[in-house]
Amino acid sequence: ENTLVIFTSDNGGPIYEPGSANNYPLKGGKYSDWEGGIRTNAFISGGFIPAARRGATHSGVVSIADWYGIVAELAGVDQEDQAAAKANTWLAQQGLPLLKPVDSVPQWTHMMEGTNGRPDAFYISNKAVMKYPYSWWL
Fold first, then answer.
1. Which residues contact 102 (CB under 8 A, 6 or more apart)?
2. Which residues of 71-102 are buried (b: 16+ CB within 10 A; e: fewer)?
3. Where is each Sulfatase N-terminal domain found (predicted)?
4. In whole angstroms, what is the distance from residue 120 CA to residue 13 CA?
5. Which of 34, 87, 89, 132 has the fewest CB atoms within 10 Å, i.e. is most exposed?
6. 2-19: per-residue pLDDT in tens?
7. Which whole-number Å values give the CA distances from 45 to 11, 12, 54, 77, 123, in the listed order?
8. Phi first, then psi: what are they for 67, rounded to 5°?
9. Which of left, alpha, beta for 114 (phi over 0: left; psi -120 to 50: alpha)?
């Protein structure tokens, strides 16, 4: 009842040789801006999942970086990097660039409620502009 298994990936499969993945029905693959290159399957399982959400689908935006925030939230710990915050005090005094904060959105509640936890997600490259659920190709 306290078990949680997380399976995720970082990008779509490689469609070049020798990778030969198939991301159908999505277009593109690894290293491309098409959904086949950036959208992946992920699932969570285990007794920790509320019975009402077992077998449910979540269609919101979840970044691979968000898994850190999700696990930290479930473990009841602060996701802020205290060592980086301490280092930033010294870096600021030296006039040096600061370390960036952890870019992770705790999304457990959104996953359990079926809502999008990253409505601000916005992606721009030299080929595409994406804001869930829309994309515009240049």
1. 65, 68, 69, 79, 80, 81
2. bbbeeeeebeeeeeeeebeeeeeeeeeeeeee
3. 1-77
4. 26
5. 89
6. 888 999 887 778 887 777
7. 21, 21, 8, 21, 29
8. -60, -35
9. left
